[in-house]
Amino acid sequence: MTVFDQPYPGSPEAARTTGLDSSPFEGSPEVLDALPPLTEQTRAEAREIIARYPQPRSALLPMLHLVQSYQGYVSPQGLTFCAEELGLTTAEVAAVATFYTMYKRRPTGRHLVSVCTNTLCAVLGGQRIFDALKADLGVGHDETAADGSVTLEHAECLAACDYAPVVTVDYEFYDQQDVESARELVAALRRGEKPLPTRGAPLTDFKGISRQLAGFDQYGDEAAARAAVDHPGNYGPTLAGVRLAEERGEVAPPMPRRTPPELEPDAGEPRATTRPTGRTGETPEKEAGDARVAAADTPAEKAGTARTHPDEGSEYGRGRPQKQPRGGTDTPAGTEPGTSGQGPGDGKA
Ligand code: FES
C-alpha cells in the first residue's frame, strides 16, 4: 500500500483504522427534540461552578460534565450554553470537548461501560471481554445498545493495572474481570440492577456520575460520603509486593536525609551558587531562567518556562491568586471527582 492508498485523516476509514473520533456533536432534530432542556436551574448551577475559580474559563471542564448530567452528552445546545456563560467561542468549547474522551458527542446509554484494552489488560483478557460485550450488545466502540441501557467503549489504561483486566461502569471499578463476569455485570445493568463496584463509591449512572464530576455531591453530609466510599478493603494486589517483602523480611534502604539549609555549616553565608556572576549582575540560576524564557517561542512555552524561573511570581511568573476560590468543590474529602476508584476494596461485586 502506498501513502496515496491510505485513508485520509478524519475520514470514516481513517477513524476505523486509528480509533480516533472525528465525528461531529450529534445534532439531528430527532435527538435534539428528545433531550431534557438546560434550564434556569442548570444556569444557576453553572454560575455556582464558575464562582469556584479565579478565572471563569477555568470552569469549563466541570461545566461540560454538568451539561452531560442533564442531557447525557455534550449537545450543540450545551456547547453554546458553556460558551455564553464563560465568554468563549463555541469553537473554543468544542476544541476542549473533543480533546477529552470523557465528553461524549452522542447521547450515552443509562450506563457507560468502559473496557480497558490497553497492554496489560489486553494481555490478560481485556480484548476478549470487549469482543464478548460487543457481541452481546450488538454494538461497536462508542455505541449504545438498542434499549438505551448501556454505551460500550474500549478505554486506554484506567490506572488500575494491578487489578487487570479492568472494566469500569460510569467510572467505578470492577476489577479482575473475565468474559463471564463481565457479561453477567452487563446483563445485570440491563435488568436495571446496580452491582456494587469492587471498590470506591456505589454505582450511580452516567448522568449521576457526571453530576459528581461537576462537583455536586450526591451525599447528604460528609459522614454519609465517607461511609459510602471508605468501606474496608483487603488492599488486594496493590499491596502484594509489600506483603511479600514482609514475609521475606525485606525493607527498603533508608532515604538519604537532607539537612535543612538553615542547619548547614555555612548557614548565614551567601552560598556559592547564589552569587552574581558578574556578567549580568544576576545569579546563575536567574541567568539560566532568563535564557529559558527568552528562548521560548510560543506564549504557552513562555508561561511554562516562567513557572520554573527563580523569580516565579514576579514579572516572569504567573503570580499567585490572592483570592481563595469561593465555596470549594462542595465535595467531601474522598469523593473528589476522579478519586472515587482509588481506594482498594474487599473483593468483587
Ligand atoms: S492496562 Fe488496563 S488498567 Fe492499565
Architecture overview:
It is a single chain. Helix 8 packs parallel to helix 9. This protein has 349 residues and is mainly alpha-helical. The relative contact order is 0.10. Helix content is 37%, strand content 6%. Among the domains are: 110 residues, NADH-quinone oxidoreductase subunit E (Arc Repressor Mutant, subunit A, Orthogonal Bundle), CATH 1.10.10.1590; 89 residues, Glutaredoxin (3-Layer(aba) Sandwich). The structure holds FE2/S2 (inorganic) cluster.
Strand percentage lies at 5-15%
| Major beta-sheet overview | 5 strands, mixed
The portion of residues assigned to helices is 25-40%
For this structure, the quaternary state is: single chain
- Give me the secondary-structure category: mainly alpha
Ligands in the model, by name, code or SMILES, are: FE2/S2 (inorganic) cluster
What is the CATH T-level topology of the domain at 22-107 and 207-230? Arc Repressor Mutant, subunit A
Alpha plus pi helix count: 14
- Report mean pLDDT, rounded to a whole number: 80
* Major β-sheet strand ordering: 2-3-1-4-5
Radius of gyration: 25 Å
Assigned CATH architecture of the domain at 22-107 and 207-230:
Orthogonal Bundle
What is the 3D shape?
globular
Total beta-strand segments: 5
Topology:
Elements: H1 12-18, H2 29-34, H3 40-50, H4 60-71, H5 76-86, H6 90-97, E1 111-116, H7 119-123, H8 126-137, E2 143-144, E3 150-155, E4 167-169, E5 172-174, H9 179-190, H10 206-213, H11 222-229, H12 240-248, H13 284-295, H14 299-307
Parallel strand pairs: 1-3
Antiparallel strand pairs: 1-4, 2-3, 4-5
